[in-house]
Write a structure and sequence with these properties.
The chain has 367 residues and is α/β, with parallel strands linked by helices. The chain has 2 domains: 247 residues, P-loop containing nucleotide triphosphate hydrolases (Rossmann fold, 3-Layer(aba) Sandwich); 113 residues, CBS-domain. It has 13 helices and 16 strands. The chain has a 6-stranded mixed sheet, sandwiched between helices. It has a 4-stranded antiparallel sheet with strand order 2-1-4-5, covered by helices on one side. A 3-stranded mixed sheet has the order 11-12-13, with no helix packed on it. The structure holds adenosine-5'-triphosphate (ATP). Keywords: ATP-binding, Nucleotide-binding, Transport.
Amino acid sequence: MIKFDRVTKRYADGTVAVDDLSLEVPTGEITVFVGPSGCGKTTSLRMINRMIDATEGQILLDGVDVKTIDPPTLRRGIGYVIQQAGLFPHRKIVDNVATVPYLLGWDRKKARDRAMELLERVGLDLKMADRYPFQLSGGQQQRVGVARALAADPPVLLMDEPFSAVDPIVRTSLQEELLRLQAELNKTIVFVTHDIDEAIKLGDRVAVLRVGGRLAQLADPPTLLARPADDFVREFLGRDRGIRRLSFVSDEGLRLRADLTVSASADVSTVRGTDEPWLAVVDGENRPLGWASVKDLPDAGTLADVRLAPYGTFVRGRDSLRGALDAALLSPSGSAIAVDEEGRAEGVATREALDEALGKVAGGVGA
Ligand SMILES: Nc1ncnc2c1ncn2[C@@H]1O[C@H](COP(=O)(O)OP(=O)(O)OP(=O)(O)O)[C@@H](O)[C@H]1O
C-alpha cells in the first residue's frame, strides 16, 4: 500500500503544487489521480518515486517512508511509464524493454528473454523487437513503454498520462490491454490522467484533485458518478453522468422474455395472430438475424423470406445495463436481444423490462 500522509509540495518559487494531501493507494488496485491542468497530479506521482521530494508530510510505501530509501533502490521496485513512452531512440525495442534488467546485472540472454516475453504480453508482434522506436507507431511505442516498466516485475507501477498522445481508437485498445494485464498481474498502479472518462474506465478508485493540489473526492467510479462530493466534482464529471453510471450496473436484474424469439424456418402463418408487433428472428443455431414486423408479414413463406429490421444485442452477464439500453435503442422494436458469450439468443429485454430495471437504479442509489 502507498499512503500519502499530509503531503505538501511547495516549489522554490512558492507555488504550492500539492496541499496537505492524505490518501491511500491500496495494494493490487488501480488508483487514478485526475483533475484539471496544474492541479498537482504529476507532482503527486513523482513524489512516490522521489523524482520530486515532498516539502512536508510523508509518503509511506508498505509502511516505510520513501525518504528513508535511496532513490535508485526505491525505483527498482517502481515501474514508471510516461506520455510518448520516453524510449531511448538509439536502442532497439528489445534493449529498451531490457533496460532495468541490464541495470540490475541480469545476463544478456535472460534480460532479452524477459523482454521478449513482455513484448508478447503487451500485445506486440515479436518482429518489432529488432526495430528502433521511430519505426513504431505511437500506440506501439506506448506498449513498449508499459513492457519496459514491467521488466523487473516491480510491485508498483506509476503511469503519467501514458495514453494521452495517441488517437482515441488506439487509446481505447491500450486501456483495455492495461485492464487485461492488470487482471493477471495485480500491480499497485497509480495512474495520472486529465481525462475523467479514462479515470472512470480504469480506476478501482479515483482521486479527483482541484487546482492547488487539494483532494476533492476519492471514491470508486460508481460512487463518484452517483454522489459527487461538490459542484467542482459534479462539473468535472461532465454531462451524461446518469447514463454513464449505468455502465456499472449489472444487467442481471433485467427480466428477459423467451417468447419473442422465433426461428427463421417457422412458417409466417404460425406467428401471424400474435399480439406482439415485433419478433426477433434467429437462425438454426439460435443466433439473431433481425426483427420481423408482424403487421408487415407476407401472406406465405417462412420467416427466412421476410425482410428483417436491424437489431442490437448485449451479452447477458457481461454487459451492463447501459449496453442493454444501447442495444434497445439500435432496434426499431425498442427491445434488446440478450445473447450468451457465443452470440446465441437467450431472450429479449423489452422496453418494459428496461424501464423496470432503470427504475431501480434511478435517483443516485443502488449502483
Ligand atoms: N519545478 C517547478 N517549479 C515551480 N512550479 C512548478 C514546478 N513544476 C510544477 N509546478 C507547478 O505546480 C503546479 C502543479 O503542477 P503538476 O505538473 O503537478 O500539475 P498536473 O496536474 O500534472 O498538470 P498537467 O495536467 O497540466 O500536467 C502547477 O501550477 C505547476 O505550474
